[in-house]
Amino acid sequence: MSAIKKSALGKGLGALLAENDTTEIHENLHKPSPASPAAAVAGSISFIDINKIDTNPFQPRTDFDELALGELADSIKVQGIIQPLTLRKLNDNQYQLISGERRLRASKIAGLTEVPAYIRTANDQEMLEMGLIENIQREDLNAIEIAISFQRMIDEVGLKQEELGERVSKNRSTVTNYLRLLKLPPVVQAGIRDGRISMGHARAIINVADIDKQLWIYRQIIEKDLSVRKVEELVRELGKKAEPVERKEPTTMSYQLKKVQDELSSRFGTKIALRIDDNGKGKIEIPVLSTNDLNRILELLG
């Protein structure tokens, strides 16, 4: 590698473009002058003022690792932005992000005033679909974020599971497995999101119909650091045991009581049964699945 090439590698996209005298590149990658701002052409790469870029309201990601953003910002300071952002033009002075929010956030941290971007024409539905697909294909997206993105594509874009699979290059069974994660209790979903349990653990848990048992298995995984195989064995053992007699909930429950019951269930991480008669008398039932479970509940009760 020549000295000129080695020098160019450390200067980022802007420097590489400036040193390349190919006519086609200069026609398609331009840096608008502040005195005479050039209109960004759809399909080309332009340098856009970072303050003129609005974030994507359809962004499926809700969690950005601050340390990783800092590392990306450091890389951008040295190498520049290698992969341009994708934007749509709202008007002469404003753009909206379609994909590349991590790069945009890191660029702001790095102190950049403008960033290279592709300009595309897209309506709201196309923006949603492009943003979702771009994020789904990222390796650092957790399983719950993928599942939520899949569900949004079904609900908001109107795709069927087969069509969704085709768009994201996954078979229907894979799509179904992700969507099933959203049926797990919130505390288990949070465990998947935060990396406390794996997708394999979750797929084993979801084969158990009873929510209390799902929560008990989840706590066993955390407390005993169970492998996926151990969890699968535990699920099979539970399946062999007789299912407890299902207790019937009161035929009528007011919205207020149902809300209280749901809040208690969320607080204690287990399915609470609130039984109140017409006279306002009743009881609260908190299931206990083990000694450790009892100690956990007692701690919550103070």
UniProtKB/TrEMBL annotation:
An example molecular function term from Gene Ontology annotations: DNA binding
Domain ParB-like N-terminal: 46-136
Keyword field: Chromosome partition, DNA-binding
SMART domains recorded: ParB (SM00470)
SUPFAM superfamilies: KorB DNA-binding domain-like (SSF109709), ParB/Sulfiredoxin (SSF110849)
Source domain of life: Bacteria
GO-annotated biological processes: chromosome segregation; positive regulation of sporulation resulting in formation of a cellular spore
InterPro entries for this protein: Chromosome_partition/occlusion, HTH_ParB/Spo0J, ParB/RepB/Spo0J, ParB/Sulfiredoxin_sf, ParB_dimer_C, ParB_N
Pfam assignment, any one: ParB_N
GO CC annotation: chromosome
Family annotation (PANTHER family): CHROMOSOME-PARTITIONING PROTEIN PARB-RELATED
Family: Belongs to the ParB family.
NCBIfam families the UniProt entry points to: parB_part
Protein name: ParB/RepB/Spo0J family partition protein
